[in-house]
């Protein structure tokens, strides 16, 4: 699902990647002089629409920095942005860029269609391969081979408004919480007469199904599996039924907003206005909206993992994000050069400098910097430690509870027709929120049958 801040290039990730000016990412065996003597290579890089002048200017600057080190490389730009309905046509007409940005749901589809290049050899020979975040890399590591480089990402979380808990005299649940802990807290906080909900789920559009999938995952379920080349739905299961029963409790006990038909922005705005104690979204985005748009103190918010079904269980949430991939129709030398282009300004001091500038710019505007709790790098790497040290210097940086990162578990989004799955599940959730005595088991079976025959059976896996 589109995490509305992190799904397309996030503004910060884009600025940081384009603003860097690394000189330290060439392999030890390649010098600019040797590269200049190599065959000419032309890369069609993914660019931006003409009206996005600032982004295009930053891209041009980055191209110039790259060409200074690799003068044998020429560039063209293509402002096409990835669309799952268009990629097949782009590949068939040989008009896709040499490299492009896609998202977590697309990994297996693109690999099975042979629409992305295997970059395992380039990754293995890269100095920073060991520094990459394994959890975030997972959606594009398929059958032991690497097909994409993460740009940014998220694991779904739940953000709590500590001030509302305090005003109600309710203790915060343990961060190692369960579904029952969430329900108990929501019961104590919910105050329909004052327009305050205990919990704010997204109830409108595909994001409603996206939210619900976290509880499917936390209950040990899955959306689908691949069986002898056929996509088979798996959500019509005990786990799926438990997740629907949980949503029914939220509605039956009046723990959600009376106007529950909230899309992504609606839900975050309701939370930022103090109209709900808990909201679910990707990583730190709810905190960003609440603090910098709603005026809630950063000290009044805390981010929790998705609750486990039972005590001691996994806190599994949806894992999503953006990934840079390479067109497999490019020749081998072009693919290798494209990999250098993609990764050239990762792990640089300039990236840290750009982060510092962003923090200081926000401080000057009395705004708080909200780092994403998961990044392309491994937090235990030297770079990760430098990043953490930089954030620690400023008092306008939102801090996550260290237990969050030790508790949460990310499971990639469904790899085949995820958006259609989310949309169908949104219809189920809306039925639960509007219909008394809905037969959950029957509704789940009917939805599963519909998705299987109308969607999953039509997926061609090569």
TrEMBL record:
<dbReference type="InterPro" id="IPR050490">
    <property type="entry name" value="Bact_solute-bd_prot1"/>
</dbReference>
<dbReference type="Pfam" id="PF01547">
    <property type="entry name" value="SBP_bac_1"/>
</dbReference>
<protein>
    <submittedName>
        <fullName>Extracellular solute-binding protein</fullName>
    </submittedName>
</protein>
<keyword id="KW-0732">Signal</keyword>
<dbReference type="InterPro" id="IPR006059">
    <property type="entry name" value="SBP"/>
</dbReference>
<feature type="signal peptide">
    <location>
        <begin position="1"/>
        <end position="28"/>
    </location>
</feature>
